Q: What sequence folds into this?
């Protein structure tokens, strides 16, 4: 059980929970069944993505004994790659089951959103053209943990879409991209040796740091006209950037934890502002 919890990466789940909270709060109307299904569907899609990533990064040689980040269960020998991939399939099936009430409520758009999300979750590390290995990981995160998650959560409540949901999706997605970019900056040397061509590998560490600066600050600029409460978290954003600019290698794990806290703070403050 401990190995499965490690593989699920619970500390990263803000990336799937916060968008659903933001989209639902923005709608200012809560169908609790739709909210619950959207929340658990998003969580299980992210856990499935994490499991596929754990198994296939090891098989592709990206996760080795020299890894600087948190423990990966396949690389550590706690679970076999085949077992972890079966776990990912189970998670995707659960996510699909969560989607059934949403489809019944909101119709065919939820079929497209759900199917695309699950396919992209696998394609992030798997398939003939893994997105993470070709510098497309950030685009995947921005689209599916930003625009799709926030916009979809808003849509299942209101059955329509609003420009504010797009703006909020961009803001929340950028914060999720910041988590990935810090992770990629930390692992730039091992990714380079395993031919994992992240943006940090393609364009260098300096580019990676500026990418993080953009992804941390852009959400506050974008969201100001929609909900000013998240601006309260700006001092934490400054601390994240200070950490990223000074840290190297394993030191970036502390920055990663701070960026996760920033995403939680941003999301919670957005919800508070939307409800007041």
A:
């Amino acid at each position: 059980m401990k190995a499965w919890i490690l593989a699920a990466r619970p500390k990263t789940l803000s990336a799937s929970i916060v968008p659903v909270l933001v989209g639902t709060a923005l709608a200012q109307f809560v169908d609790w069944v739709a909210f619950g299904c959207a929340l658990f569907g998003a969580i299980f899609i992210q856990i499935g993505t994490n499991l596929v990533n754990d198994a296939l990064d090891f098989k592709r040689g990206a996760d080795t004994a020299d890894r600087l980040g948190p423990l990966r269960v396949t690389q550590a020998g706690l679970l076999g790659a085949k077992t972890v991939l079966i776990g990912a399939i189970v998670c995707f099936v659960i996510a699909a089951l969560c989607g059934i009430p949403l489809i019944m409520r909101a119709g065919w758009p939820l079929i497209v959103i759900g199917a695309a999300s699950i396919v992209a979750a696998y394609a992030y590390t798997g398939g003939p053209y893994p997105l993470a290995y070709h510098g497309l990981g950030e685009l995947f995160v921005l689209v599916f943990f930003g625009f799709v998650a926030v916009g979809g959560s808003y849509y299942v409540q209101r059955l329509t879409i609003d420009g504010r949901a797009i703006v909020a999706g961009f803001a929340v997605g950028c914060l999720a991209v910041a988590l990935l970019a810090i992770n990629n900056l930390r692992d730039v040397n091992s990714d380079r040796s395993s031919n994992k061509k992240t943006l940090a590998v393609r364009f260098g560490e300096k580019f990676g740091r500026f990418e993080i600066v953009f992804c941390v600050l852009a959400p506050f600029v974008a969201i100001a006209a929609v909900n000013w409460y998240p601006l309260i978290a700006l001092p934490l954003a400054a601390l994240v950037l200070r950490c990223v600019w000074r840290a190297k290698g394993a030191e970036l794990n502390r920055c990663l934890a701070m960026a996760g806290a920033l995403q939680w703070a941003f999301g919670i403050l957005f919800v508070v502002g939307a409800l007041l």
The chain has 13 helices and no strands.
